[in-house]
Amino acid sequence: MTGIEEAANRLIAVGESGRRAGRDPVNLPMVRNWLEAMGDTSPAYTEVAPPAMAQVWTMFGLNGTRSDDDPLGTMIHVLDDAGYTSIVATNCEQTYHRYLRYGDEVALTSTLESVVGPKRTALGEGWFVTTRNTWYVGEEPVAEMLFRVLKFAPKPATPPPPPLIRPVVNRDTAYFWEGTAQGELRIQKCGGCGELRHPPGPMCPHCNETKPTHVVASGLGEVYSYVVHHHPPVPGHTLPFVIALVELEEGVRLLAELVDVAPDEVEVGLPVRIDFAKVDDELTMPVWRRR
Ligand SMILES: [Zn+2]
């Protein structure tokens, strides 16, 4: 049996709490204010108060506190301590035994009826706590209320995935990103002298030719240099991560994240191969893996 169930059984066995007297007798000024707030213009309440005001007569007031033997207050503390920190009222049924008359002195008792749980709800896992309040005038019960709350552990809010820093795709680089989407590592090749170059550019630095083509690289190379990035956080990456500058067999160098290798296991000369990590329909990132 859980501590929650033990506490509930103890409180249920105690039964009715001690009586708590209302602050004022049932009175016309309070009824007038209540009718006004409710928009009720019925002239019926010259001798008796509206039955639905039962709870009003024993409200704590602004600075009131629950009595020590109030079972709902006690169960709230027990459930708070167990991590069920949020509360929502789910059900309230009132029964009226007779009209309250002006001058009636009302007192309230409270009984724990049941504590049921843990239940999975849309709000989170929680316990349904049902209490029965009984209002008395003298020894006569005049109204009752079954009141049910759900005390629940709120589901942690799932933060939206951080936006990824996306590469700029333009006329000079489109061939590269179209390649990664197809699982190809494409390297720009000069249409004039045939020199390979990366990163891509609009003009060959050797012969000034402006109509580049490309080749598909083997994707094999060695770590030429690297950094271990510890800070600041980068959207889409888990810290720390390794960015490696890899020299390809074809002779050009290319930067990408080196995955699946611990930062302290990376070294210059480490043999790696290209792989492709699909981010979404528009973007596939090249990544290095150890060979
Ligand atoms: Zn050239």
From TrEMBL:
Domain FAS1-like dehydratase: 21-144
Domain spans labelled ChsH2 rubredoxin-like zinc ribbon: 177-207
Annotated ranges, domain ChsH2 C-terminal OB-fold: 215-276
Coiled-coil annotated residue ranges, if any: none
InterPro entries: ChsH2_C, ChsH2_Znr, FAS1-like_DH_region, HotDog_dom_sf, NA-bd_OB-fold, Thioester_dehydratase-like
PANTHER family (UniProt xref): BLR3430 PROTEIN
Name used for this protein in its record: OB-fold protein
